[in-house]
């Protein structure tokens, strides 16, 4: 088994700084956990990718009344958008529910409950005979999917070595597009290979979610609970044991002991400053403690700027958007598949080669710039050629060539999104919040995320009509321009820092955190100061301490025995 993972170890050694990290910590246990909780991102990505293609299929339209002759065009559009966005509505509640479940039952058990609930939700949908039952199934699915964006990033941040924490979180972010990629191709495959009038056209893509949920449940059986959650619950010995298994090091190893010490010290510091954590105390810390409030506002602003760049809406409405540049019929589904491939590929290129290697800020700069230029080009094209996608319309050769570039711009906007906002929106939440409030803080942020994703998904069809496609994408460009300034001024570079070292960084004045925080506050945690030679020295010191302790104990025992013997002799003489 170790031979299978040796190329992965060599990869980390070549592209990532592993100074001070024992080679044993990069092991199959870590890789399996990162795969299971990383691929959890498929849950939301699959629905985002397939629902846009589902609502244009004739059997689905007929079953759920999307062709009702008694309804107006606005009413039918509203019904379609309700079906499309119902999972997002449920996800708002799901992410808030996760802040209780994840903290009470742990990451593993909550994931297993999500998988079971997800299967039940899918069964409700595929047996639907009315749009009401479909809404219930999709709403319940949203409650499950919404929890995944709290469980996955929290767990991955807590078990990953700091050297590759960005990579492991981006596996989750990239898995969104693995799900999108799969769902788009399953949709397209059903469209071209099945009876176009059969309900299997929409039942098969929906039922495939059961396979995903089953695989995630089985995978969770091979993972260990988060050591940081166990420390928070007061189970320190169990935490050391779990960390030992995840790191493939003995519990008394200096690296394991240093990591446990950092976790305990940070939690003790938080509890001493704010008292034992109650729900009211957690909310007070989130909004009344200056350094934590800054982090919350930072994450909430990132969700607004990212979602209103319309990247998520482009994924959902890709079949309609490619129609604006002249693509018709089943080719709209095929071109949506290509978007899934592009985002999937660029997400993992970013995960493996950009986010940790170049840092969070540079990755975001690059991603926003690519997305801004692409979105701006598409907006300009739609202003110059507003009717290029209408059937029977005639366009010039130059406009036709420009339509190919506009289509490419949609794909390039996806590349920019996966490099920038998509990587950051999950990663920084789980990285920068203190352990005591991490679950609830992340849950609140992701609920905010879903509120704005729902808003953009619901708003885009109307915006394309009222302010035209060009105006819609100009608005997205303006948000991206604001995002560049936000990243420069407010966002600190936290790549390579231990989770326990964030407090000092965010205690700086607010106007210095983003621009100079990394330079003014380097990582001073125990685990950051531990070098390879320190590990050897620490281990030898531990041996010396053990030897001295044993020697002292033996001497004490001999002394006590001598004293007892003298007392006994004196007693006999008396």
UniProtKB/TrEMBL annotation:
UniProt xrefs under Pfam families: Sugar_tr
Ranges of Basic and acidic residues composition bias in the record: 546-574
Main subcellular location: membrane
Subcellular localization: Membrane
PROSITE patterns: MFS (PS50850), SUGAR_TRANSPORT_1 (PS00216), SUGAR_TRANSPORT_2 (PS00217)
Domain Major facilitator superfamily (MFS) profile: 33-495
UniProt keyword annotations, A-Z: Membrane, Sugar transport, Transmembrane, Transmembrane helix, Transport
SUPFAM superfamilies cross-referenced by the UniProt entry: MFS general substrate transporter (SSF103473)
Region (Disordered), start-end ranges: 539-574
InterPro entries named in the record: MFS_dom, MFS_sugar_transport-like, MFS_Sugar_Transporters, MFS_trans_sf, Sugar/inositol_transpt, Sugar_transporter_CS
GO cellular component: membrane
Transmembrane intervals: 29-46, 83-102, 166-186, 206-224, 296-318, 333-355, 364-384, 404-421, 433-451, 471-491
Topological relation to the membrane, as annotated: Multi-pass membrane protein
A GO MF term: carbohydrate:proton symporter activity
Membership in a protein family: Belongs to the major facilitator superfamily. Sugar transporter (TC 2.A.1.1) family.
Record-given protein name: High-affinity glucose transporter of the major facilitator superfamily
């Amino acid at each position: 088994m170790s031979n299978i993972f040796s190329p992965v170890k060599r990869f980390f050694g070549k592209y990532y700084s592993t100074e001070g990290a024992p080679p044993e910590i990069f092991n199959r246990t870590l890789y399996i956990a990162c795969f299971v909780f990383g691929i959890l991102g498929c849950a939301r990505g699959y629905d985002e990718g397939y629902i846009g293609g589902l609502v244009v299929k004739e059997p689905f339209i007929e079953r759920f009344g999307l062709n009702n002759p008694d309804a107006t065009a606005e009413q039918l559009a509203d019904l379609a958008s309700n079906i499309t966005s119902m999972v997002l509505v449920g996800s708002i509640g799901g992410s808030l529910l996760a802040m209780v479940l994840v903290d009470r039952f742990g990451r593993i058990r909550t994931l297993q409950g999500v998988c079971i609930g997800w299967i039940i939700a899918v069964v409700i949908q595929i047996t639907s005979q009315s749009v009401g039952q479909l809404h219930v199934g999709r709403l319940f699915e949203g409650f499950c999917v919404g929890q995944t964006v709290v469980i996955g990033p929290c767990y991955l941040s807590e078990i990953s070595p700091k050297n590759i924490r960005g990579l492991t979180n981006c596996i989750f972010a990239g898995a969104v597009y693995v799900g999108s990629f799969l769902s788009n191709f399953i949709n397209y495959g059903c469209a071209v290979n099945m009876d176009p009038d059969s309900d299997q056209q929409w039942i098969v893509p929906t039922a495939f979610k059961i396979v995903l949920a089953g695989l995630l449940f089985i995978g969770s059986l091979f993972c260990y609970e988060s050591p940081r959650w166990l420390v928070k619950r007061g189970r320190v010995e169990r935490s050391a044991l779990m960390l030992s298994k995840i790191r493939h090091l003995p519990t008394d190893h200096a690296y394991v002991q240093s990591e446990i010490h950092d976790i305990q010290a940070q939690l003790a510091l938080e509890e001493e400053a704010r008292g034992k954590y109650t729900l009211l105390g957690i909310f007070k810390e989130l909004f009344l403690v200056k350094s934590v409030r800054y982090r919350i506002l930072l994450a909430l602003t990132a969700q607004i700027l990212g979602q209103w760049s319309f990247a998520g809406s482009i994924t959902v409405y890709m079949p309609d958007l490619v129609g604006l540049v002249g693509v018709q019929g089943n080719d709209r589904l095929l071109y949506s598949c290509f978007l899934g491939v592009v985002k999937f590929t660029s997400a993992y290129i970013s995960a493996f080669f950009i986010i940790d290697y170049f840092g969070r800020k540079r990755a975001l700069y690059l991603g926003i710039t690519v997305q801004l230029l692409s979105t701006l080009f598409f907006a300009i094209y739609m202003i110059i050629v507003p009717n290029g996608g209408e059937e029977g319309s005639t366009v010039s050769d130059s406009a036709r060539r420009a339509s190919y570039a506009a289509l490419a711009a949609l794909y390039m906007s996806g590349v920019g999104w996966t490099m920038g906002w998509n990587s950051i929106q999950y990663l920084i939440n789980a990285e920068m919040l203190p352990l005591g409030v991490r679950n609830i803080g992340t849950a609140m942020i992701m609920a905010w995320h879903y509120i704005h994703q729902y808003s953009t998904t619901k708003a885009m069809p109307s915006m394309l009509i009222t302010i035209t496609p060009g105006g819609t994408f100009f608005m997205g460009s303006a948000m991206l321009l604001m995002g560049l300034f936000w990243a420069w001024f407010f966002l600190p570079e936290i790549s390579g820092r231990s989770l326990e070292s964030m407090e000092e960084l965010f205690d700086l004045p607010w106007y210095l955190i983003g621009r100079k925080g990394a330079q003014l506050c380097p990582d001073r945690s125990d685990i950051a100061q531990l070098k390879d030679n320190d590990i050897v020295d620490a281990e030898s010191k531990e041996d010396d301490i053990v030897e001295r302790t044993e020697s002292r104990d033996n001497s004490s025992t001999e002394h006590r025995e001598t004293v007892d013997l003298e007392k006994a002799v004196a007693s006999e003489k008396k």
